[in-house]
């Protein structure tokens, strides 16, 4: 039975009533907090549903006039020309080409920098270098685009005159620099999470620092590293301003990085600027292209989640 120390002039009944009132107030506050958090989560879910619904609704109207087979297998994309063709493969090829070349830049540099920060850099140096590296993620992408067009492209054209003013290579190089912090930071976090006991056991067996980093730490953090690679690739696929400014707006069905190409995001920007009246078939192409882009990024995100679950290491 509860015992109360009754203050002068306060009865035990009043003390019990005050405790119950505080409890009711706490319950009300918890319910309010739960309702507010649920409302915010519901807003995010409804926003996603709304975006997907708009894409599907407009894309269905487009596919009522254009064959999905022609759209997915055609190699000519000229919806804004007099001779109209609606094969999306040139846009898909341009998008994947830029994403692939940018990952050739970001993956090795990001992984090597992550290994250095995790295994070699002193704590004080890591605290300085990592924030500086992550500053790259805060630079506006339009700045990256003009950096590629006005600085990287002239350098490339000094090496070879076969490179056009607008080309996929310069856009890919700069995009690789842009997504470098994502690869480096996420990979470094995954390697830092590897227990020190594994490193110490490897050192006890006579392993060098390089062997510990490459044969113990990296394999142990493989799920996080792979997830960073896939997320960075997804980011590269959805990038807009760099490819719009530096890669051109010429939907070539080619794998040549020296010529102008057009990505799916660049085409959406082109039509959104007013090149096609709203409600026309040409305008509806942006929803079909956006739906294709959405499916690509969704596949990449699902693949990232599968990799994390498949190769996750559990440490006690």
Which key phrases capture this entry?
316 residues, mainly alpha, MetI-like fold, 2 domains, 12 helices, 73% helix
Provide structural commentary.
By secondary structure, this protein is mainly α. 73% of the residues lie in helices and 0% in strands. The protein starts with 11 loop residues before the first helix and ends in a 5-residue tail after the last helix.
Write the layout of secondary structure elements.
Blueprint: H1 12-63, H2 68-73, H3 89-120, H4 123-134, H5 141-159, H6 168-192, H7 196-204, H8 209-220, H9 222-237, H10 241-246, H11 264-275, H12 281-311
Helix pairs in contact: 1-12, 3-6, 3-9, 5-6, 6-9, 7-8, 9-12, 11-12
Return the string of H and E elements.
HHHHHHHHHHHH
Q: Alpha-carbon distance between the termini?
A: 43 Å
Number of domains: 2
Mean pLDDT: 85
Q: Name the CATH homologous superfamily of the largest domain.
A: MetI-like
* Helix run count: 12
Estimated share of beta-strand residues: under 5%
**Radius of gyration, Cα only, in angstroms?**
27 Å
Q: Would you state the CATH class of the largest domain?
A: Mainly Alpha
CATH architecture of the largest domain: Orthogonal Bundle
Helix content: over 70%
The main pleated sheet reads as: none
What spatial form do the alpha-carbon principal axes imply? flat
